[in-house]
């Protein structure tokens, strides 16, 4: 049996849980409630449909992958299980991508100290610009997180100094795979241009 009190007839519940007679609620507020509730209920249904689509997509694609593996004794797909499938007429394209979310362990602080030592030992000039780049790479955002892209970008610099190389090795050792996310994207070929256009499922981009 529910512990929630039944709402008296002719009343609505306000955010504080109080029962307010509808007669005491202004007409604009009533219309606002009707509009928001109607659209939000539709949004919830669409949200559930998208969740079902995502789950079905993952399941069906994985079943197809297993079918191919059993038939051809190999796994179809690219790096990290990425997969691109087409409809027979080429009208539709389905892309499955898996990406790792990474973070850094305590070795990153060692890398930062080694990099600082390098820059302090070298002559001024161009190294001042490098120092700015390094400091930006190790800045934290509003959530206290370091940009993985900026830190990993440091490894692309062609600096042969042994201490710098040790720092880059420390960055490599600091990388931790936090989790793996799988994305399913749908595309349809534009008959005019021949290009595949995404079937947008993000409401802000529709």
Count of separate DSSP helical elements: 5
Largest sheet, spatial ordering of strands: 3-4-5-6
Count of DSSP strands: 6
Helical fraction equals 40-55%
Q: How far apart lie the N and C ends?
A: 43 Å
Strand content: 15-25%
* Biggest sheet architecture: 4 strands, antiparallel
Radius of gyration: 28 Å
Structure commentary:
The protein has 5 helices and 6 strands. Strand 1 and strand 2 (19-21) form a beta hairpin. It has helices at residues 27-72, 107-121, 126-137, 148-153, 162-174; strands at 11-13, 19-21, 83-86, 92-104, 175-189, 196-198. It starts with 10 loop residues before the first strand and ends in an 8-residue tail after the last strand. The radius of gyration is 28 Å and the shape is extended. The mean pLDDT is 84. It has 206 residues and is of the alpha+beta class.
Concise structural overview:
Helix content is 45%, strand content 20%. By secondary structure, it is an alpha+beta fold. The chain has two domains: 1-76; 83-206, no CATH class.
Helix-strand layout with pairing:
Elements: E1 11-13, E2 19-21, H1 27-72, E3 83-86, E4 92-104, H2 107-121, H3 126-137, H4 148-153, H5 162-174, E5 175-189, E6 196-198
Antiparallel strand pairs: 1-2, 3-4, 4-5, 5-6
List the main descriptive attributes of the protein structure presented here.
206 residues, alpha+beta, 2 domains, 4-stranded antiparallel sheet, 5 helices, 45% helix
């Amino acid at each position: 049996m529910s512990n929630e009190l039944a709402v008296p007839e002719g009343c609505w519940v306000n955010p504080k849980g109080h029962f307010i007679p509808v007669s005491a609620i202004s007409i604009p507020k009533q219309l606002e409630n009707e509009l928001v509730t109607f659209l939000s209920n539709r949004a919830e249904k669409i949200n559930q449909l998208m969740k079902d689509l995502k789950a079905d997509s993952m399941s069906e694609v994985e079943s197809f992958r297993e079918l191919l593996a059993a038939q051809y004794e190999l796994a179809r797909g690219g790096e990290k299980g990425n997969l691109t499938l087409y409809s027979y007429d080429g009208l539709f394209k389905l892309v499955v991508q898996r990406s790792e979310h990474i973070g850094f362990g305590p070795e990153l602080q060692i890398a930062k100290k080694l990099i600082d030592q390098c820059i302090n030992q070298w002559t001024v000039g161009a190294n001042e610009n490098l120092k700015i780049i390094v400091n930006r790479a190790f800045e934290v955002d509003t959530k206290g997180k370091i940009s993985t892209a900026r830190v990993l970008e440091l490894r692309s610099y062609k600096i042969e100094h042994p201490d710098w190389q040790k720092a880059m090795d420390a960055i490599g050792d600091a990388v931790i795979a936090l989790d793996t996310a799988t994305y399913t994207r749908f595309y349809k070929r534009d008959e005019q241009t021949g290009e595949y256009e995404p079937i947008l499922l993000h409401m802000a981009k529709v």
